[in-house]
Amino acid sequence: MTHMSDHTAPADLSSLYPDNRIQMVVSSFGYLHGEPIEADVTLDARRQFRNPHDDPGMRYRTGTDSAVRQHVLNTPGVRAIIDNTVRLALDLFVEVADPRFRMVTIAVGCAGGRHRSVAMAEEIASALRSRGVGVDVEHRDIDKPVIETPASPVPPAEALRDSLAQIINRMDDQLSSGHPDPDLSRTVFRQLSELYASTF
After folding, report:
1. How does pLDDT run across 9-56, given as a tens digit for each residue?
2. In terms of pTM, does the model score above 0.90?
3. Are residues 123 and 174 located together in one domain of the fold?
4. Is 32 contained in some domain?
5. Which domain holds residue 85?
6. Are residues 36 and 131 in the same domain?
7. Where is the RapZ C-terminal domain (predicted)?
């Protein structure tokens, strides 16, 4: 269970460290490139966020690119996750009484460490800086090779059209006969289900 502070972090924390030294480190990493980074707060972005890797136009870019970053940040609910992460980090920060040890680390991981985690780390760091926190950002795997994943097989358009035409013809025969055959109906619906499963 995550411990939540009873204290509310002030809007501007810069007065807590007048020399402007770094007080938080936000890191991104890829789970497919080694062990996760140890941190006070860890965010797993593999499942909840849109993956730019699926778009060939974004696959070889990174989360520092504005188009990639917006693609990730436009995922429904992502802003709330960012706000909650920032709030938790600030709570951890103000709870530490001794400023010499007031260092909070945040790690964001995705599959390859190039897109989602990078975009999230940059956005979290930006939000923290706007609150007067000195932040350093590190992207461990941003320059690692892109991990290629096999594309899902998609039937050719012609084959798909022919399969649908055959099924529709059988359904037409059923309707025009006036005496539907239950076994044939089950076969038609099974074929539709199989075609849907193989396509989508």
Report:
1. 455 555 555 455 678 999 999 999 999 999 999 999 998 788 999 999
2. no
3. no
4. yes
5. 14-139
6. yes
7. 23-143
Claim to verify: residue 100 and residue 74 sit in the same structural domain:
yes
Residue environment code for 134-154, b if the CB has 16+ CB neighbours within 10 A, otherwise e: bbebebbbbebeeeeeeeeee
109: left (phi over 0), alpha (psi -120 to 50) or beta: beta
The three-state (H, E, C) secondary structure of the chain, written as one string: CCCCCCCCCCCCCHHHCCCCCCCEEEEEEEHHHCCCCCCCEEEECCCCCCCHHHCCCCCCCCCCCHHHHHHHHCCCCHHHHHHHHHHHHHHHHHHCCCHHHCCEEEEEEECCCCCHHHHHHHHHHHHHHCCCCCEEEEECCCCCCCCCCCCCCCCCHHHHHHHHHHHHHHHHHHHHHCCCCHHHHHHHHHHHHHHHHHHC
Say if residues 45 and 126 touch (Cβ distance below 8 Å). Answer: no
Distance CA 89, CA 47 (A): 22
Interatomic CA distance for residues 128 and 123, integer angstroms: 9
